[in-house]
């Protein structure tokens, strides 16, 4: 039996920006989440830069960071991670592309998901593509719903491609780079094939869109890297692929979907069952991200409330029965509703240790807006660190000292989250960085959520610790009244 259980909760894209429709608040601020509120009151709550500077704000980058792998070191592209989940092996001289089925009319990206067609509708379309391009040096592999895979020669990987979800309602932007002519030709030639096959299955897809390419990454085995064994649950191939590549077991939950009908309880039960004989579990749900992409405010709020009532509340009760445990909660990126796509905004994180209460704060964007963002990939190693969970400054100094000779360091305001610190390091031949860095996180403390109000401007109050089952209220925008969940 494990001595300590470790759980990572990933509400995909749940972080947002203040919305006019919510009177200047975010879905995290208006949602009724009594269990999350009680948990955050006893946790370290901070702000994480899950997406490194200069990298695309995708779930591939964000979830890799959440698992403790620095994307700047390990990331090679989105598609090869999904290929691992699908059991598609890539040769060293091959490159994988994500192949979306999309709807484009008059050079406008009408729908990056082709009406969220079902997998049953999609498979005949991918089969038609495979038959039509049988003489070409390309292989198509059917995935889930609109998400599929195309494998091309490695020479076709030199291109800059815009994700289709970044183009919703906008003019399409064709690939650029040395391989662009090959990709544009494939997408153009796919149009009659996809349109005809889609019509036969009553779908709206009319072409493919290639993006997110890369060669197969090499990720260190999770158990060897951290000394714990675990599993994960997700309906998304990208997250499942990270499990395959890192040696984490991938649990199939029959009711788990990438939509609003996800079986939250099924994933929660799978987590608790797995923790009976494993140390670690990552639970990922896509619904909040899908709501952001579709601009559906109510669906995003509803997904957060289902997280609270169907996962967090019962999960914490189950973990209490199992014994000592730690929880890390953090989205892989923000998906602001008004943008309808991902952003590089820093996101709130939460670390809870059942053996050490901390003076917490609300788990909202505004509550952490004035805190310096910490690198997202450093949080899981810290949660998994043996012994007492250390403050972030102490942990970073301890870990970095193993690889670097410090030329200067200044630590100030030792609090659960540091207020500022500066560190210049010189590369040690045995270390993992290749250049001198200077990081001034206190410079980045401002942002779209910066507020002059108490608690960072959060509209949520920290609940009394004895009130773990409080119902909470949500004031609906424009209604001028409080309602309670049914």
CATH superfamily of the largest domain: Alkaline Phosphatase, subunit A
> How many angstroms does the end-to-end distance come to?
38 Å
Principal-axes geometry comes out as globular
Q: How much of the polypeptide forms β-strand, as a percent range?
A: 15-25%
Biggest sheet character? 8 strands, mixed
Number of helices: 14
Examine the secondary-structure arrangement and name the CATH architecture of the largest domain: 3-Layer(aba) Sandwich
Please indicate the count of domains. Answer: 2
Q: How big is the Rg?
A: 23 Å
Tell me what you see in this structure:
The protein is an alpha/beta fold and 486 residues long. The protein has 2 domains: 5-75 and 217-483, Alkaline Phosphatase, subunit A; 82-214, no CATH class. Helices cover 29% and strands 21% of the residues. It is built from 14 helices and 18 strands. A hairpin with a 6-residue loop joins β17 (474-475) and β18. The chain is globular. The chain starts with a strand and ends with a strand.
Question: Which structural traits does this protein have?
Answer:
486 residues; alpha/beta; Alkaline Phosphatase, subunit A; eight-stranded mixed sheet; five-stranded antiparallel sheet; 14 helices; globular
Draw up the topology in text.
Layout: E1 5-11, H1 27-30, H2 34-40, E2 44-49, H3 59-66, H4 71-74, H5 79-85, E3 94-105, E4 108-111, H6 119-132, E5 139-144, E6 147-153, H7 180-200, E7 207-214, H8 222-226, E8 230-233, H9 237-246, E9 249-250, H10 264-274, E10 280-285, H11 287-294, H12 297-322, E11 325-329, E12 347-353, E13 374-375, H13 379-383, H14 392-400, E14 404-412, E15 420-427, E16 437-439, E17 474-475, E18 482-483
Parallel strand pairs: 1-10, 1-11, 2-13, 8-9, 8-10
Antiparallel strand pairs: 2-12, 3-4, 3-6, 3-7, 5-6, 11-12, 14-15, 15-16, 17-18
Helix pairs in contact: 5-9, 6-7, 10-12, 11-12
């Amino acid at each position: 039996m494990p001595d300590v259980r470790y759980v990572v909760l990933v509400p995909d894209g749940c972080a947002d920006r203040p919305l006019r429709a919510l009177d200047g608040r975010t879905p995290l601020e208006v949602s009724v989440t009594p269990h999350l509120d009680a948990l955050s009151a006893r946790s370290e709550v901070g702000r994480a830069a899950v997406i490194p500077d200069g990298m695309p704000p995708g779930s591939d980058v964000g979830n890799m960071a959440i698992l403790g792998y620095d994307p700047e070191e390990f990331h090679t592209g989105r598609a090869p991670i999904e290929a691992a989940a699908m059991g598609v092996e890539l040769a060293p001289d091959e490159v994988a592309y994500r192949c979306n089925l999309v709807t484009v009319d008059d050079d406008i990206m009408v729908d990056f998901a082709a009406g969220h067609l079902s997998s049953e509708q999609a498979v005949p379309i991918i089969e038609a593509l495979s038959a039509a391009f049988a003489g070409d040096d390309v292989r198509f592999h059917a995935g889930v719903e609109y998400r599929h895979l195309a494998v091309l020669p490695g020479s076709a990987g030199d291109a800059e491609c815009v994700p289709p979800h970044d183009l919703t309602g906008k003019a399409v932007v064709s690939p650029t780079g040395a391989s662009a002519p090959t990709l544009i030709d494939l997408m153009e030639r796919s149009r009659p094939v996809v349109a005809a096959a889609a019509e036969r299955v009553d779908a709206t897809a009319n072409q493919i869109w290639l993006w997110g390419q890369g060669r197969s990454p090499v990720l260190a085995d999770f158990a060897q890297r951290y000394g714990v064994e675990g599993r994960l649950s997700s309906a998304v191939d990208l997250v499942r692929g990270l499990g395959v590549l890192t040696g984490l077991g991938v649990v199939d939950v029959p009711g788990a979907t990438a939509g609003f009908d996800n079986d939250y309880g099924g994933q929660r039960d799978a987590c608790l069952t797995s923790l009976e004989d494993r140390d670690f579990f990552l639970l990922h749900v896509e619904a909040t991200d899908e709501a952001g992409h579709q601009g559906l405010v109510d669906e995003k709020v509803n997904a957060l409330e289902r997280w609270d009532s169907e996962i967090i509340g019962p999960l914490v009760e189950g973990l209490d029965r199992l014994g000592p445990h730690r929880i890390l909660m953090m989205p892989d990126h923000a998906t602001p509703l008004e943008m309808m796509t991902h952003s590089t905004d820093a996101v709130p994180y939460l670390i809870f240790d059942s053996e050490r209460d901390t003076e917490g704060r609300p788990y909202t964007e505004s509550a952490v807006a004035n805190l310096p963002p910490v690198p997202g990939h450093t949080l899981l190693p810290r949660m998994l660190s043996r012994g007492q969970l250390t403050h972030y400054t102490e942990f970073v100094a301890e870990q970095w000292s193993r690889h670097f000779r410090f030329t200067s360091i200044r630590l100030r305001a030792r609090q659960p989250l540091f207020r500022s610190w500066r560190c210049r390091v010189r590369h040690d031949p045995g270390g993992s960085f290749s250049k001198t860095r200077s990081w001034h996180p206190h410079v980045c403390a401002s942002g779209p959520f910066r507020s002059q109000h108490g608690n960072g401007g959060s509209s949520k109050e920290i609940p009394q610790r004895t009130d773990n089952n409080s119902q909470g209220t949500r004031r609906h925008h424009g209604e001028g009244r409080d309602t309670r969940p049914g």
